[in-house]
Design goal:
30% helix; 8-stranded antiparallel beta sheet; globular; alpha+beta
Amino acid sequence: MIRKSTLIQATAAAGAVALLLTGCAGSESPGGSNSSEGSEPETGTGTVAVMEDWKGCWALDDLQPLQDYLGVTAIGGDGLIDAAMGEGLDGEALTCSGSFTLPAATVGSGSFAGEHSGSATVQMGVVPWESADIAAENYAERLKRREDSMASEGTELSNIATGELGGSWDESFYEAGDHDPYVYVDTFGRSGDWILYISMYYTPDPGLSNDQDAAYPFTDAALVEWVANEYMPQVQAEILSKIESEQ
């Protein structure tokens, strides 16, 4: 396996700050190795070697638990975007991402009644490195890049919830908040020599936004609590099991 630090291969849509921030945007990988096309290949070690043939949606079980929690009713485009290392928006990671339709609310009455569906965009990734030190450096870079990008874009979240993930991580962080017209949830956890993250944004509940009953099967606070304290630790355990099965 040839391991290089890879630029984000596409830019996010306007306002989709969370997805823009997850990949490495520098010309060097952590530890100073050059990522140019002419650089010498290196043999992968650590979880890089284990995950060299993995695809993101296989490793992350098609995001099914998250889809179930969100109440996803449809997946946009051609379905989930399944990427190995060197592919997708985040070239350093194996990723699974997609655009989802969320439950709808009926707004208005009589001939003016219509259904308003919610939507969500999610990218989840596993970022393997050759050592825990390199992973720790990349983890710090990702958080710093997220902070710098939000500042440069003028993205100021309100109703912020922040903290550490549940379970056992070497280091972890989550932040959620509102920035019209979306609610953002970003989570990062480092487990030894690999990183797990979720970057997602979704529209507010169309029922509550129109003085109707809630359409979503979750509240903003409950979603953050579940992702941080149940889903991320669950996925971490499943990935550790997959790693162990291949060693």
